[in-house]
Amino acid sequence: MEQLTLNISNKSEVKIIAASSYNFQIELLEKMGKDDLPDILNISKELSEIYGNHIMIDERNVMKYFNENTLPFLARYNKKIIGYIIGVPLEHFNEESWCKYDTNLNKKNTIYTYAFIIKKKHRKSGGYGKTLKMIYLNWAKKRGFEFVTGHVAQSIVKNFKAKVETIKVFSNWYGTNIPFEYYRRKL
Ligand SMILES: CC(C)(COP(=O)(O)OP(=O)(O)OC[C@H]1O[C@@H](n2cnc3c(N)ncnc32)[C@H](O)[C@@H]1OP(=O)(O)O)[C@@H](O)C(=O)NCCC(=O)NCCS
After folding, report:
1. How many angstroms separate the alpha carbon of residue 117 from the centre of ligand 1?
2. CATH at 69
3. N or C, fewer C-beta in 10 Å, the chain?
């Protein structure tokens, strides 16, 4: 951790995208600072508990996903980070075997949702997850992306409000024993 924080400033640089009178706001993280790093790493542990090595954001790679080439949005409630969503241009994953199923690879028109998490006690109520996702999608469109994609458990994708296209079903996604769908949504 010490080595990681050597090159980063004390305070994150964020752009506040939306704020409510209930101490809730959504921020675009433009530059990670030492102040937000512990919260982000803590929340990321919850992701690893569910997905193991497949979605692993830790001290070693956190800056790879939270930087100016990605689209990381934070949900903050009462000054504490309660969740985040990270979009990464699809081409970043071109070494991964699943990428070859996406005919948009190398067209630079797709943002891949790498991670989306809200802390347990803030899920389902309050609309935090919905607001975070909505803002992320609007911004991705604003930045010129035409499609958003991601891997989602089939049980969840069928509840998406928006229409999505199934690109490929993976019956046992990275050993989770759960069928996951690689979906595409038009922005
Ligand atoms: C995924 C998560 C952030 C959703 O938050 P929530 O408070 O449970 O939110 P809701 O059920 O109210 O859903 C909010 C929106 O997120 C969507 N959603 C749920 N899971 C999603 C996923 N994996 N990817 C993209 N969107 C997802 C819902 O469909 C809904 O959007 P819609 O109304 O436009 O269809 C939350 O359940 C969570 O943190 N889960 C654990 C981590 C996880 O499995 N993340 C997904 C893989 S990275």
Report:
1. 7
2. 3.40.630.30
3. N
